[in-house]
């Protein structure tokens, strides 16, 4: 298994070597610069690397189009300028202002995030843009009646940086200082990306609702993205202000934001190496094209248009430096190509064996719906629905289209709060809980119309689901504390165990394959594996066999049965294929127009007059 | 308080003029949003280019600051040519920046729109310079009839012209949408693009038409504002775009009549706000309104809340 895994993982010695090499390069490069002008460009590049990586957290990882980002950069800069200059005669030391300013800016990020959390896509973009405009107007106008920001003239002559007596005034020392922090930000980006936070953000970017339904606290994670981006921007702002020895409103205006966005997009949103390359390219290239300086902003506009049309994943995108050298995934260790049918038939026998059932339905109620009603405007999608689900039971919900089956699932899983009624899970009322809280309580679901995280790997899709079961925060992730390491190991083990339930279809080389490249049936299987990876007790499957051929249907039917008989899950299934319902169900509930019209064993329900009428219509008298 | 009451009629007139312009810009946003569910970021620049087109017409038809033909003819030509230029520009933007992305994630579309906006703004900066261009209205209309008073309220002919043209264009658009076959096709496409295709509507053509009309109205607004405030520069589109968007959101985005009403409300609020706040914070008032509406009532004053389909 080892060679197919961990494509970016370096072992410890390699890591040490890498950092030593980077250290030597950073120590030498400033001395190679032909003149002080290029040394300045080199140092600015370091600042842009940080700035772009900060934006990459918000826009790249979490997919939030934050157009106020540059304002955070400005807030950081202005905080430093106010606290370390003659403006108010406050002269706090640099080593205090840097973290102070980063944390204060993070607070602003948090505040912006919490006001605009409910907004999506375009609306979020425009609200954040409006905030950025307000920020700029304040910078420009807060020189009267009391001079705070210095208006158009900004604030200058800031205190020199003094680190434990070492005064940083020479340009070379500045380049060391700034690139030192840049490397920290790069490292932090890598760590956070492959942690539960990184996966949570990526899941939100791919499909926010599905992320929430797999237990990711999307509200919190979006706030953390805003806060994280603002933290980096604020710190970078301090370094920038100190390097420039001044701050002006123009430093933090819209064009600056566009430049940073272009860096992130050119490199590929979320792709750390790409973003670093993008930042370096766009810092250096304009210097070679200086006689065309007037066209600089115009070409940034063109870069955006052309990249979005032709290569939205950025210049590095999929040809990523680390995935290149990988061997063909469907080759085994000896180098022989394996046909997919080999994998298929090798596995089929195993699936065929059901084994001896170990679990069966008990009397203990696990889930109880009491008079649950859901109104959409005037339409009652679910009307006074009550039923009890017992532990280790397989319950099927059937009914014609529009009968309210999926709405019932959405009510239980917390996607809609019910208009009235109560939902008890293990004795606690979960009606009105958020989806991620429902997952945490132990209920997981699949979606009728497949909502996988398509651009994430198969393994990461399953790993996302461990989000509510792990607790590592940013600090323990960034410093790689033992608790985080342990949780990562557990997450990987559980995700692999669950994918293993489907044998070769989702394992081996497929761990690293993107979900979108799987076959239709495999995507359905992955949805189930993803739901199982939440450590759920109760599994809700919305039409698991939809679109599957007869062979696949038989297989998934046996699999669902096995989940209960061998692994002891409690299951609710919405299903249209009645032979599936007949095989797996302990009990069947029939819905029509939102109400329960029949309940009982399959045979009982199938002969119920009302049910037949609901499906086939009434005979004319 | 008394002084405010004295100013009130004047601010109402000013607000109504401003509101008419915002409404024209807002319509462009809302029409595109209604059909493509996208925020056409470049719309503010379209407005700006409309202003420049009007300026060029005036410039080319003047000799030494004196118009060479009849003033009303010049003003009509300015508006019509500005509308033609921006209409074509809108079609071009749709064709090259948005159509290739119709199936792409929304974020890509928005970034592309941002790219168009930056591109156009800097294109104009490069070829027209950063300095404002002045509309020599004084030579167009003699001083004696340019401004007149009714009671305490100052009316300028230009303001009246702006109100009349803005409302005339909105009336025409209303007729087009409500009464004609094309209007019906546009409404159908906005409701459900796929279903409209199945009913034999050429959706691509409708989308082009929407960009044409929306951009032309934005262009008309550009020229009208130029005539009213007598200047235009490369940067006006940014602010105007945000205002137009605010108006569209205020009225419920996607809703054309909402956009008209939203524009007028925003114009009035902004004018009245200048009585109470320093003028430098006038824009802050508009942005705060935008933020509040989007956060607390994102479906606008007239729109309806629609739950997300799962």
Walk me through the topology.
The complex is a heterodimer of chains A (621) and B (310).
Chain A: H1 12-32, H2 36-61, H3 69-83, E1 84-85, E2 90-91, H4 94-115, H5 121-141, E3 155-156, E4 161-163, E5 166-168, H6 171-193, H7 196-206, H8 208-213, H9 218-244, E6 246-247, H10 254-267, H11 272-288, H12 296-310, H13 340-352, E7 365-376, E8 379-390, E9 394-398, H14 405-412, E10 420-425, E11 428-429, H15 435-441, E12 443-445, H16 458-464, H17 474-478, H18 482-500, H19 520-532, E13 538-542, H20 550-565, E14 570-574, H21 578-584, E15 587-592, E16 595-600, H22 602-606, H23 609-616
Parallel strand pairs in A: 9-14, 9-15, 12-13, 13-14
Antiparallel strand pairs in A: 1-2, 3-6, 4-5, 7-8, 7-10, 10-11, 15-16
Helix pairs in contact in A: 1-6, 2-6, 2-9, 2-10, 2-11, 3-4, 3-9, 4-9, 7-9, 7-16, 10-11, 10-12, 16-18, 16-19
Chain B: H1 2-36, H2 43-60, E1 62-63, E2 66-67, H3 71-98, H4 106-128, E3 133-134, H5 137-140, H6 143-146, E4 147-150, E5 153-156, H7 157-179, H8 181-191, H9 193-198, H10 203-229, E6 231-232, H11 236-250, H12 256-276, H13 282-296
Q: If you average the pLDDT of chain B, what whole number results?
A: 87
CATH fold-type name of the largest domain in chain A = ABC transporter involved in vitamin B12 uptake, BtuC
Strand content of chain A: 5-15%
* Spatial strand order of the main sheet of chain A: 12-13-14-9-15-16
Largest interface, C-beta within 8 A: A-B, 46 and 45 residues
Shape of chain B: globular
Highest CATH level, the class of chain B: Mainly Alpha
Shape of chain A: elongated
Your description of this structure?
The complex is a heterodimer of chains A (621) and B (310). With 621 residues, chain A is of the alpha/beta class. Chain A has two domains: 7-319, ABC transporter involved in vitamin B12 uptake, BtuC; 365-616, Rossmann fold (3-Layer(aba) Sandwich). Chain A is 52% helix and 12% strand. Chain A has helices at 12-32, 36-61, 69-83, 94-115, 121-141, 171-193, 196-206, 208-213, 218-244, 254-267, 272-288, 296-310, 340-352, 405-412, 435-441, 458-464, 474-478, 482-500, 520-532, 550-565, 578-584, 602-606, 609-616; strands spanning 84-85, 90-91, 155-156, 161-163, 166-168, 246-247, 365-376, 379-390, 394-398, 420-425, 428-429, 443-445, 538-542, 570-574, 587-592, 595-600. In chain A, a hairpin with a 2-residue loop joins strand 15 (587-592) and strand 16. In chain A, helix 2 runs parallel beside helix 6 and helix 3 (69-83) runs antiparallel to helix 4 (94-115). The radius of gyration of chain A is 29 Å and the shape is elongated. Residues 1-7, 319-327 and 344-352 of chain A have low confidence and may be disordered. Chain B has 310 residues and is mostly helical. Chain B has one domain (7-296): ABC transporter involved in vitamin B12 uptake, BtuC (Orthogonal Bundle), CATH 1.10.3470. Helices cover 74% and strands 5% of the residues of chain B. Chain B is built from 13 helices and six strands. In chain B, helix 11 (236-250) runs parallel beside helix 13 (282-296). The longest helix of chain B is centred in the N-terminal third of the chain and has 35 residues, at 2-36. Chain B is globular. Classes of the chains: A alpha/beta (621), B mainly alpha (310). Chains A and B meet through helix 5, helix 10 and helix 12 of A and helix 4, helix 11 and helix 13 of B.
């Amino acid at each position: 298994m080892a060679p197919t895994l961990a494509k970016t993982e370096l072992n410890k010695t390699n890591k040490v070597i890498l950092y030593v090499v980077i250290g030597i390069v950073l120590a030498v490069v400033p001395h190679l610069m032909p003149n002080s002008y290029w040394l300045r460009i080199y140092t600015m590049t370091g600042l842009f690397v940080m700035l772009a990586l900060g934006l990459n957290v918000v826009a790249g990882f979490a997919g939030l189009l934050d157009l106020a980002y540059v304002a955070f950069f400005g807030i950081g800069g202005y905080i430093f300028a106010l606290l370390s200059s003659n403006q108010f005669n406050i002269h706090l030391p640099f080593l205090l202002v840097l973290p102070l300013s980063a944390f204060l800016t993070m607070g602003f990020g948090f505040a912006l995030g919490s006001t605009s959390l409910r907004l999506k896509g375009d609306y979020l973009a425009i609200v954040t843009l409006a905030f950025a405009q307000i920020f700029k107007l304040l910078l420009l106008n807060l020189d009267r009646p009391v001079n705070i920001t210095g208006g158009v003239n900004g604030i200058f002559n800031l205190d020199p940086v003094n680190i434990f007596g070492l005064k940083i005034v020479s340009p070379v020392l500045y380049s060391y200082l700034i690139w030192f922090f840049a490397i920290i930000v790069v490292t932090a980006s890598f760590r956070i990306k492959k942690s539960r936070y990184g996966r949570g953000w990526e899941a939100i970017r791919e499909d926010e609702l599905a992320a929430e339904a797999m237990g990711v606290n999307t509200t919190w994670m979006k706030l953390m993205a805003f806060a994280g981006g603002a933290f980096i921007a604020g710190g970078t702002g301090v370094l920038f202000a100190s390097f420039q020895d001044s701050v002006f409103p123009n430093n933090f205006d819209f064009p600056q934001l566009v430049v940073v966005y272009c860096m992130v997009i050119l490199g590929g949103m979320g792709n750390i190496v790409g973003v670093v390359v993008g930042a370096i390219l766009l810092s250096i290239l304009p210097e070679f094209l200086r006689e065309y300086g007037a066209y600089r902003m115009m070409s940034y506009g063109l870069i955006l248009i052309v990249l979005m049309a032709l290569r939205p994943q950025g210049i590095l995108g999929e040809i990523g430096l680390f995935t290149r050298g990988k061997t063909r995934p469907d080759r085994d260790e000896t180098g022989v190509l394996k046909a997919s049918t080999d994998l298929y038939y090798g596995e089929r026998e195993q699936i065929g064996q059901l084994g001896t059932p170990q679990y069966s339905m008990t009397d203990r109620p696990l889930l109880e719906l009491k008079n649950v009603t859901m109104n959409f405007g005037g339409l009652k999608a679910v009307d006074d629905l009550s039923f009890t689900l017992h532990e280790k039971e397989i319950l099927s919900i059937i009914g014609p289209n529009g009968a309210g089956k999926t709405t019932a699932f959405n009510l239980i899983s917390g996607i809609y709060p019910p208009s009235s009624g109560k939902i008890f899970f293990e004795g606690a009322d979960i009606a009105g809980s958020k989806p991620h809280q429902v997952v945490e309580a132990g209920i997981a679901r699949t979606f009728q119309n497949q909502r996988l995280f398509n651009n994430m790997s198969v393994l990461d899709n399953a790993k996302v689901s461990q989000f509510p079961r792990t607790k590592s925060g940013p600090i323990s992730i960034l410093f790689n504390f033992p608790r985080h390491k342990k949780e990562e190991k557990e997450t990987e083990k559980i995700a692999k165990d669950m994918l293993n339930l489907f044998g070769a279809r989702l394992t081996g080389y497929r761990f690293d394959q993107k979900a979108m490249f799987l076959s239709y049936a495999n995507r359905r299987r992955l949805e189930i594996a993803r739901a199982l990876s939440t450590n759920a007790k109760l599994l809700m499957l919305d039409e698991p066999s939809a679109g599957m051929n007869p062979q696949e249907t038989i297989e998934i039917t046996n699999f669902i049965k096995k989940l209960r008989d061998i692994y002891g899950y409690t299951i609710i299934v919405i299903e249209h294929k009645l032979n599936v319902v007949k095989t797996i169900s302990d009990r069947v509930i029939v819905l029509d127009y939102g109400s329960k019209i029949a309940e009982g064993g399959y045979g009982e329900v199938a002969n119920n007059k009302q049910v037949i009428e609901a499906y086939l219509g009434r005979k004319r008298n | 308080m008394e002084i405010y009451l004295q100013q009130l009629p004047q601010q109402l007139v000013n607000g109504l003029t401003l509101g008419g312009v915002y409404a024209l810009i807002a319509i462009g946003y809302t029409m595109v949003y209604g059909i493509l569910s996208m925020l056409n970021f470049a719309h503010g620049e379209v407005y700006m280019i409309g202003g420049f087109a009007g300026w060029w017409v005036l410039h080319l038809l003047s000799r030494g600051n004196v118009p060479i033909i009849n003033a009303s003819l010049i003003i009509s030509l300015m508006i019509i040519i500005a509308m033609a230029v921006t209409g074509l520009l809108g079609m071009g933007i749709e064709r090259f920046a948005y159509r290739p992305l119709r199936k792409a994630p929304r974020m890509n579309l928005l970034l592309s729109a941002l790219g168009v906006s930056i591109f156009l703004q800097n294109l104009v900066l490069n070829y027209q310079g950063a300095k404002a261009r002045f509309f020599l209205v004084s030579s167009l209309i003699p001083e004696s009839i340019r401004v007149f008073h009714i009671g305490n309220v100052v009316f300028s002919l230009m303001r009246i012209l702006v109100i009349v043209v803005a409302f005339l264009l909105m009336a025409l658009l209303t007729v087009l949408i409500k009464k004609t076959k094309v209007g019906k096709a546009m409404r159908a496409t906005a409701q459900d693009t796929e279903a409209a295709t199945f009913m034999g509507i050429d959706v691509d053509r409708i989308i082009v038409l929407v960009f044409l009309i929306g951009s032309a109205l934005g262009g008309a607004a550009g020229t009208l504002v130029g005539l009213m405030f007598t200047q235009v520069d490369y940067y006006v589109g940014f602010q105007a775009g945000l205002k137009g968007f605010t108006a569209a959101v205020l009225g419920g985005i996607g809703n054309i009549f909402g956009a008209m009403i939203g524009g007028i409300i925003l114009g009035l609020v902004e004018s009245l706000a200048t009585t109470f706040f320093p003028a430098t914070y006038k824009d802050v008032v508009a942005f705060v309104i935008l933020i509040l509406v989007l956060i607390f009532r994102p479906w606008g004053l007239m729109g309806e809340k629609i739950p997300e389909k799962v």
